[in-house]
């Protein structure tokens, strides 16, 4: 093995799991935590692909539980490559579905960007999360029961 490939192997072993998947530069540039249960159940929740892009954009700006995101609709529209009016309509639809709540911000010079709250989406997704957790618990219990069996399995003649 050459010195160069040894260095590359050593560098790869020092990477974290997501850095191995996505690369260190991409992870160092920033990443977003988003519940898989929302992605896996977007159809059942009634979320469109544009809604998902908006939610991901909002989530990418939500760093702490109390520090809710407040990006401009134009910023999100530019990132998603849609008209700002599309962002406005889809946010209104998600607010009507009680997934998002907009909080207006005003300053001495007028309106500022809205603050977005995810409480409704979180509540709507909880039943899907509970269902998934029950499935996981069932799989774990079955696996544990299998591993705790004593003796060899009983074989039956099949005709």
How would you portray this structure in words?
By secondary structure, this protein is mostly helical. It has helices at 3-13, 17-22, 24-28, 36-40, 42-45, 49-59, 73-80, 84-96, 119-148, and strands spanning 101-107, 110-117. The chain has a single domain (32-145), classed as Arc Repressor Mutant, subunit A. It contains 9 helices and 2 strands. Helix 7 crosses helix 8 (84-96).
Radius of gyration over alpha carbons? 23 Å
Strand content: 5-15%
CATH classification, class level = Mainly Alpha
Give the mean pLDDT: 91
Per the CATH scheme, the topology name is Arc Repressor Mutant, subunit A
What is the CATH superfamily? Winged helix-like DNA-binding domain superfamily/Winged helix DNA-binding domain
């Amino acid at each position: 093995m050459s010195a160069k490939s040894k260095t590359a192997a050593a560098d790869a072993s020092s990477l974290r799991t997501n850095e191995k998947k996505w690369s260190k530069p991409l992870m160092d540039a920033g990443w977003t935590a988003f519940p898989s249960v929302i992605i896996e159940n977007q159809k059942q929740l009634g979320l469109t692909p544009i809604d998902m892009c908006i939610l991901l954009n909002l989530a990418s700006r939500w760093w702490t539980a109390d520090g809710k995101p407040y990006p401009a609709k134009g910023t999100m529209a530019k990132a998603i490559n849609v008209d700002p009016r599309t962002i406005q309509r889809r946010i209104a639809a998600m607010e009507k579905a009680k997934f998002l709540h907009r909080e207006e911000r005003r300053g001495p010079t007028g309106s500022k960007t809205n603050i977005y709250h995810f409480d409704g989406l979180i509540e709507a997704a909880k039943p899907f999360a509970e269902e998934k957790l029950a499935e996981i618990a069932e799989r774990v219990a079955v696996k544990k029961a299998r591993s705790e069996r004593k003796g060899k399995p009983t074989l039956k003649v099949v005709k």
